[in-house]
Structures are given as structure tokens and as C-alpha cells.
UniProtKB/TrEMBL annotation:
Annotated PANTHER family: GLYCEROPHOSPHODIESTER PHOSPHODIESTERASE GDPD5-RELATED, GLYCEROPHOSPHORYL DIESTER PHOSPHODIESTERASE
Organism: Agarivorans albus MKT 106
Pfam families: GDPD
Cleaved signal peptide residues: 1-20
One BP annotation, GO: glycerol metabolic process
GP-PDE domain location: 73-390
A GO MF label: glycerophosphodiester phosphodiesterase activity
Protein name as catalogued: glycerophosphodiester phosphodiesterase
Recorded catalytic activity of this chain's protein: a sn-glycero-3-phosphodiester + H2O = an alcohol + sn-glycerol 3-phosphate + H(+)
Keywords carried by this UniProt record: Glycerol metabolism, Hydrolase, Signal
EC number(s) recorded for this UniProt protein: 3.1.4.46
UniProt similarity note: Belongs to the glycerophosphoryl diester phosphodiesterase family.
């Protein structure tokens, strides 16, 4: 980037006294759609790591010459921007929007009183929030904290589920970076375990959100929405007194009640039953419902998926690309999905599932496979690529 873009380096989505309120992602939360995409230094850093060649030359020219970047629907904020911000918090979502993510994700779980909230799992509050540090709430956890007994090889344990708490109790918590020290002998040690590739620098504030609040925020930001219906355990369904289908319907109903157009929503699930439910019962939302795929064992074939009137699938990116003789190429499975007429989304860039370079992966995903979108833990990476490589 040119020196004239210094502001993008000085104020890369963080709270600094040197930044104006307009550059402050938290204070700007009620100012409507993002007016200026800020990428910070990471995309240029990644370009520098590329091997010399046509791709690096093209991206380097973009670094040198492009002065503004546009919001990209190809860039999907995976739980916001959890590489550095506590996932599924208002601050994480704002950071992702600042980085030009045109689509934001709320993983949808539910509380004891049946209210929908943004959380990656029904059972992760002990690693993603400060619940263990709040005695009156920690006492309500399904599995209270038990310290490690290192002498006998016993790890520390805890399990705090969204269904252990009411919405009001849930909203009283503060989000933190997802981590746990299983060798801990105290709650403080258990919570203080952020891995080295992340940071606690922006974790002082982590505002938890209900699903309805995420819809309102995303609508205000002018971005599309991709809620993922999480799979509850039997104890969660029993605690809230609902069935899986009622859960699937309730999630869609909250978009309808908020006046969100179905074309703005990509409902997701790892359960093909959920996706088939939306296709059959809310066809306007089922039209672009997304079937998430992790392991291929037991997954219907591409033609079988298409026969169920499912239009979009989202496998992990390691199912779509691979390295052959040092070159990143599309897998046979990816080609089969395309041949079946399915549109593709994938997850998650910046999670370092492999040693493949992010931009080499994105090059195949965009140019060869023509993906609809790519989830990233740091959306600036995908936003930059989509703006630069047409």
C-alpha cells in the first residue's frame, strides 16, 4: 500500500486514541453501513510470503496501486473476525464489517428460556465467555469447574451450556477468546489460555448478542446474513421445551419478523435434515439454504444432494483444493460438486488447516471453482483478494 494509506495501518479496526470516532469500530456501531473498508497490513504481509510468479505480481500491483476497497459478498466473516476478536460478539462483527465482509455469520444456539443467541456451540460458554468467573452463574453450569490433578494425569473440566441460562443471564456475560487451559488448577488459569497465533489485545470488551440483535446489527450495516443452526443435545431441547424442527423454524421466523428478504439470508446447517426442512417448509429461504460438509463419509453424493433441491453446499476447503507437485489445484470432489450443478461456499481461510498459502487457495476457489463465498477468520484477506483478482 502507498504511504497515503497510512491511516489503514494506524487504525486497523482497533480502539486507538489517535483514531477519529468514524474509525472506531465499536463507537461506529450505530452509524449504518460501512463507508470505508479498512484492510490493515495483513493482506500485504501475505502477498510478501508468496512465491514469485504471476499471482504474486498481480497482487503486489494491487497493494501498490489500489487506494480503496469495496465491500465483498465473496468475503464472509466467520463468527465475525475471531482471529483477534472474541467470536460472535458485537465487536467481532463490527471488525469484520470494517474489513469489507459482505456477509456475516451468527451461529445460532438457544437459551434455557428458548431464546436464540449467537454462539458456535450450545456447550462452549466456559471457553468463550467469562461465565466461570461469575460465581452465581458458574454454579448453574452443567459441569462446574474442577481443577486439574496433574499428579494423577487428570485434566481440568467444565461445561457451561447456553441452555443452562436464561437470555438475561447470557447477556450479562462477556465474550473472550475461545480457549481453555486443561492443566489449570484455578479458574483464572483455566480461562487464561489464548493460543499464540491469536491475541487478547482486543478482548477487553466482548458484547454477547442474541440472534435478533445480530439481525438488527447486520441489517444496519447493510450486509447479508448467514445463520448456522447448531445441533443441540437432548438436554438442550428438553431444557427449552422445543423440538429440532421448531428450532429450525424459529430461526427463520426471526428473519421474517425483522422484514429481511430471503435473498439476504443463507441459512446453514451440518444436518441435511435441517436443510431439507427449510427447502420443504420455507422454500423462499430454502432456495439458498446451505448444506455444510466436514467429513465426506456418510454424506450423500453430489447428484443425490442436488436431487433434494439443495442448491448450495459448503465443504471445508481441504475437500475442494489440494496440492499436487507443489501446486494448489481443485480436487476431484470439487469438480463433481460443480458437475452436479451445485453452488459452493467454503470454510475457513485463516484457520491454517494446511500449509497451503491463503492466496493460492483463494485463487483456485475463485477462478477455477467460482465459489459463491469464502468464510475467513480475518475477512480482510478475502476482501483484498476479491477486490484485486477479477
Amino acid at each position: 500500500m502507498k504511504f497515503s494509506q497510512l491511516g489503514l495501518f494506524l487504525c486497523p479496526l482497533v480502539l486507538l486514541s489517535a483514531c477519529s470516532d468514524d474509525d472506531n469500530p465499536i463507537q461506529a456501531a450505530n452509524t449504518g453501513a460501512i463507508s470505508k473498508v479498512q484492510l490493515g497490513p495483513r493482506p500485504a504481509f501475505l502477498v510478501d510470503q508468496l512465491a514469485d510468479g504471476e499471482l504474486k505480481t498481480s497482487l503486489q500491483a494491487c497493494v501498490d496501486d489500489m487506494t480503496t476497497y469495496s465491500v465483498s459478498d465473496f468475503s464472509i466473516g466467520h463468527r465475525g473476525a475471531p482471529l483477534m476478536f472474541p467470536e460472535h460478539t458485537k465487536e467481532s462483527y463490527m471488525a469484520a464489517a470494517r474489513m469489507g465482509a459482505g456477509v456475516l455469520e451468527c451461529d445460532v444456539a438457544f437459551t434455557k428460556d428458548g431464546e436464540l443467541v449467537c454462539r458456535h456451540s450450545h456447550a462452549d460458554l466456559h471457553t468463550t465467555t467469562n461465565v466461570l468467573a461469575v460465581p452465581e452463574l458458574a454454579a448453574k453450569c452443567s459441569v462446574p469447574f474442577t481443577p486439574a490433578d496433574t499428579a494423577n494425569g487428570v485434566e481440568a473440566t467444565a461445561e457451561c451450556r447456553t441452555s443452562d441460562f436464561t437470555l438475561a443471564e447470557y447477556k450479562s456475560l462477556t465474550g473472550k477468546m475461545d480457549a481453555a487451559n486443561k492443566q489449570a488448577t484455578t479458574v483464572e488459569e483455566y480461562m487464561d489460555a489464548t493460543p499464540s497465533f491469536r491475541t487478547d489485545l482486543y478482548a477487553e470488551v466482548g458484547t454477547l448478542m442474541s440472534h435478533k440483535e445480530s439481525i438488527a446489527l447486520f441489517k444496519e450495516l447493510g450486509v447479508k446474513m448467514t445463520p448456522e443452526l447448531k445441533t443441540p443435545a437432548a438436554q438442550d431441547l428438553a431444557a427449552a421445551g422445543i423440538t429440532q424442527q421448531e428450532f429450525a423454524q424459529k430461526m427463520i421466523d426471526e428473519y421474517i419478523e425483522a422484514g429481511i428478504e430471503p435473498s439476504e439470508v443463507y441459512a446453514q446447517s451440518f444436518s441435511i435434515d435441517d436443510v431439507e426442512y427449510w427447502v420443504a417448509n420455507t422454500p423462499e429461504f430454502g432456495e439458498q439454504a446451505v448444506y455444510l460438509i466436514y467429513l465426506l463419509d456418510g454424506v450423500p453424493s453430489p447428484t443425490e444432494i442436488a436431487a433434494k433441491n439443495i442448491n448450495i453446499v459448503a465443504p471445508i476447503y481441504t475437500a475442494l483444493v489440494e496440492e499436487q507437485d507443489g501446486v494448489v489445484v481443485a480436487t476431484d470432489y470439487a469438480k463433481q460438486l460443480k458437475e452436479a450443478g451445485l453452488d459452493l461456499i467454503t470454510w475457513t481461510i485463516e484457520r491454517k488447516y494446511t500449509s497451503m498459502h491463503e492466496f493460492e487457495v483463494l485463487n483456485v476457489l475463485k477462478k477455477d471453482l467460482e465459489l459463491v463465498g469464502v468464510f475467513s477468520d480475518w475477512p480482510a484477506t478475502v476482501t483484498f483478494f476479491d477486490n484485486c483478482i477479477k
